[in-house]
């Protein structure tokens, strides 16, 4: 069974069960309606004489209760008119303004304290109520991908629906528009052309005419290409085989893609897992880069090796590797500068850093991870191609995937670059940096866009 068939079966589970439950609810509710109505009718039916007696009894009771109240009101009026009260009022009026202010302040403070007692309790109760579910439940990977890919799913679905709504016939013009739609969804130029060519024969073979059939054919072809290109793909992170040696992850990428933030979140993950983590501030050229990584180290609670700005990045990495070996660190995460303006200098710098690491640890670095900003779409694909030319990238870290409608970039990276995506950013929280799951990604991207399979 292919990935697309599993996708359809996964989406078909809920729609089949829901109607049965609704029918049961409707049938049971219809059965229960009649006795409820008869009961209410019996309860409400009463003779007019009984109603009159009840009204008379209530009016007499109210009149009796009102008599003492009226008397108290008359007595209060009389008391106000007594000379003693007049004297008290005159004395209050003759007091100084300061006393009036003090009295007013005390009264206001007492009233505010009385009013604020109940809201404080309710606020504390509501806070306790809202905190409990967060502590008790942690979202599953399916929920995380579903939420993180909501914008991409909505954007891709809107483009696909608009394409299908504008065309009455699946002809040459339709496939030209399809290519543009897929390119706009950032699935990549080569992928878009490949899908368009393969679909022309597929649609004719299936005799697909309805919108749902054509939509399913497009998504199925996307999923099949994505699955076939990732047969031998390894999305897992690799660690040092020798447990006595530290694992080294080297991070590369242009400035502003979330590379330093990714390092901080990954350091938090391993630190929480009980690992001894060390960071190396190898980006010594960008202003504030060293301090940014140092701040992440303070926040997460891990050590950071730094040198002054404009220092040799290889010297920083050398000190970090020596420290990691000497003090038995488990993980070393290395930040580097990302300058694509001059590929030669960048290539020389990265080569020098890798030589320093390999000289001290022959099996390191275990990963060279390229950080890409998912919100940049095709620009991220261009960056990936350029970095792949200057260094041996082993995997992709796709940041800000939750904040973009361009989730199709994952398809392009796999199909055009043949680089595995290893980490994805699905939110801003510390634990929203997740290991990439190809199937969860496909489910999250195409959920609701595939016609459920009916057996």
Describe the secondary-structure layout.
Elements: H1 3-44, H2 48-80, H3 83-94, H4 97-136, H5 141-148, H6 150-166, H7 172-184, H8 189-206, H9 211-229, E1 247-252, H10 259-272, E2 277-281, H11 289-300, E3 303-305, H12 313-326, E4 331-335, H13 343-360, E5 367-373, H14 378-390, E6 395-399, H15 409-417, E7 421-425, E8 433-435, H16 438-446
Parallel strand pairs: 1-4, 1-5, 2-3, 2-4, 5-6, 6-7
Antiparallel strand pairs: 7-8
Helix pairs in contact: 5-16, 6-7, 7-8, 8-9, 10-11, 12-13, 14-15
Question: Would you write up a description of this structure?
Answer:
It contains 16 helices and eight strands. The protein is of the alpha/beta class and 455 residues long. It is elongated, with a radius of gyration of 35 Å.
Largest sheet: 8 strands, mixed
**How many extended strands?**
8
Shape, per Cα inertia axes: elongated
Number of helices: 16
What is the strand arrangement across the widest sheet? 3-2-4-1-5-6-7-8
Please indicate the percent range of residues in DSSP E strands (runs of 2 or more). Answer: 5-15%
Radius of gyration: 35 Å
SSE series: HHHHHHHHHEHEHEHEHEHEHEEH
Q: Unreliable stretches, pLDDT < 50, 5 or more residues?
A: 14-137
Q: Give the termini separation.
A: 15 Å
Structural class: alpha/beta
Compute the average pLDDT. Answer: 74
Oligomeric form: single chain
Helical proportion, percent range: 55-70%
């Amino acid at each position: 069974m292919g990935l697309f068939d599993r996708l359809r079966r996964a989406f078909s589970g809920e729609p089949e069960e829901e109607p049965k439950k609704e029918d049961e609810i409707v049938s049971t509710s219809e059965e229960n309606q009649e006795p409820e109505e008869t009961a209410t009718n019996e309860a409400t039916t009463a003779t007019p004489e009984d109603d009159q007696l009840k009204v008379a009894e209530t009016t007499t009771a109210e009149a009796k209760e009102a008599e003492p109240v009226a008397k108290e009101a008359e007595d209060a009026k009389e008391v106000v008119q007594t000379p003693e009260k007049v004297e008290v009022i005159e004395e209050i009026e003759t007091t100084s303004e300061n006393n009036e202010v003090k009295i007013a302040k005390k009264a206001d403070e007492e009233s505010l304290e009385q009013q604020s007692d109940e809201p404080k309790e309710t606020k504390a109760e509501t806070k306790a109520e809202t905190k409990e579910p967060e502590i008790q439940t942690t979202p599953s990977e399916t929920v995380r991908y579903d939420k993180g890919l909501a914008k991409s799913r909505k954007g891709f679905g809107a483009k696909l629906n608009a394409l299908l709504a504008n065309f009455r016939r699946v002809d040459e013009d339709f496939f030209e528009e399809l290519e543009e739609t897929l390119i706009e969804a950032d699935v990549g130029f080569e992928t878009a052309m490949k899908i368009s060519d393969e679909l022309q024969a597929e649609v004719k073979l299936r005799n697909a005419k309805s919108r749902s059939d054509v939509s399913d054919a497009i998504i199925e072809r996307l999923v099949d290409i994505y699955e076939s290109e990732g047969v031998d793909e390894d999305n897992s992170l690799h660690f040092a085989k020798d447990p006595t040696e530290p694992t080294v992850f080297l991070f590369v990428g242009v400035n502003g893609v979330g590379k330093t933030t990714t390092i901080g979140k990954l350091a938090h993950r391993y630190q929480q897992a009980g690992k001894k983590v060390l960071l190396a501030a190898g980006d010594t050229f960008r202003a504030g880069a060293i301090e940014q990584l140092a701040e992440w180290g303070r926040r997460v609670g891990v050590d950071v090796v730094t040198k002054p700005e404009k220092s040799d990045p290889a010297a920083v990495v050398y000190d970090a590797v020596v420290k990691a070996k000497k003090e038995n660190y488990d993980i070393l995460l290395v930040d580097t500068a990302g300058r694509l303006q001059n590929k030669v200098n960048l290539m020389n710098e990265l080569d020098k850093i890798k030589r320093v690491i390999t000289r001290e640890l022959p099996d390191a670095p275990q990963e060279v991870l390229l950080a890409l900003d998912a919100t940049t779409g095709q620009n991220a694909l261009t960056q990936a191609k350029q970095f792949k030319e200057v260094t041996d990238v082993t995997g992709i870290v796709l940041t800000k995937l939750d904040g973009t409608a361009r989730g199709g970039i994952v398809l392009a990276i796999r199909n055009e670059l043949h680089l595995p995506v290893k980490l994805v950013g699905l939110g801003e929280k510390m634990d929203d940096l997740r290991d990439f799951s190809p199937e969860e990604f496909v489910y999250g991207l195409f959920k609701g866009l595939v016609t459920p399979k009916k057996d």
